[in-house]
Design a protein that fits this description.
This protein is mostly helical. Helices cover 83% and strands 0% of the residues.
């Protein structure tokens, strides 16, 4: 069996514009949805980060005008958060823009992604999956093969709960992080020179919570994306 048959079939269907083929339409729609979800959810995160960035820089400028003789803890905090949120916002902007191009022109992006399928080793479960999908794509049937459907169902059985858990954790950790830094800022206004072991521990926890929050954001984004478009991921990582 030629394990490149699936790639060749998909190339042929994509280049011939076989949009009337239900099997090809299903694959292309899954690919488009995959990028559309990332564009929408990533755009939401980007707007939130952008709003936070504006808020942090406004607070920084306000404090800078009021206390120019030294870098107070509050001033340093807002500068650091403003810088981090700006960098992450720009990063999310790149992701959103890249996915928008695939949403607007999914055909070209889909063709480029075909090479990512690779060539599975003969006799493996993945090779059997590729052969079944190849036959399905050539037949033009609307009903996907059972081996693909089972793979999708298996992926969704853990991917959807993971997306929900990551999203809930993201909200909880974000609230927890904000509460820590608000408490530290409030304390610094009263007695910045009297940092106790408790406050120093809170600073360490607050600093650690920032990358954890960003990681949970990416995990929530990736798992939500995969939950809405599981077919291509099943083919890639089955």
């Amino acid at each position: 069996m030629n394990n490149d048959n699936l790639q060749n079939t998909l190339y042929h269907l994509a280049q011939s514009g076989a949009f009337s083929n239900p099997a090809y339409h299903t694959l292309l729609h899954d690919y488009t949805t995959y990028h559309a979800v990332l564009f929408i959810e990533g755009g939401i995160f980007m707007l939130i980060l952008m709003a936070l960035s504006v808020y942090f820089w406004q607070r920084f400028r306000r404090i800078q005008k009021a206390t120019t003789h030294h870098w107070a803890f509050e001033k340093k905090t807002y500068f650091s958060f403003g810088l981090v949120s700006t960098v992450v916002t720009l990063f999310m902007l790149l992701i959103v823009a890249a996915n928008l191009s695939n949403v607007l022109n999914p055909q070209e992006g889909f063709i480029q992604s075909i090479t990512d399928l690779g060539t599975p080793q003969e006799g493996t479960q993945k090779a059997a999956l590729y052969q079944a999908v190849d036959i399905w794509a050539q037949s033009g049937s609307a009903q996907p093969p059972s081996i693909l459907q089972n793979g999708v169902d298996n992926r969704l059985s853990w991917q959807r709960p993971k997306a929900i858990v990551c999203s809930i954790l993201l909200v909880l950790v974000a609230i927890f992080t904000m509460s820590i830094w608000r408490k530290l800022i409030k304390f610094s206004r009263v007695s910045e020179a009297m940092w106790s072991l408790k406050e120093k521990a809170l600073i360490a926890i607050g600093v650690l919570a920032i990358p954890v929050t960003l990681l949970l954001m990416l995990m929530a984004l990736a798992n939500t994306q995969a939950s809405f478009a599981p077919i291509m991921l099943t083919l890639l990582f089955s």
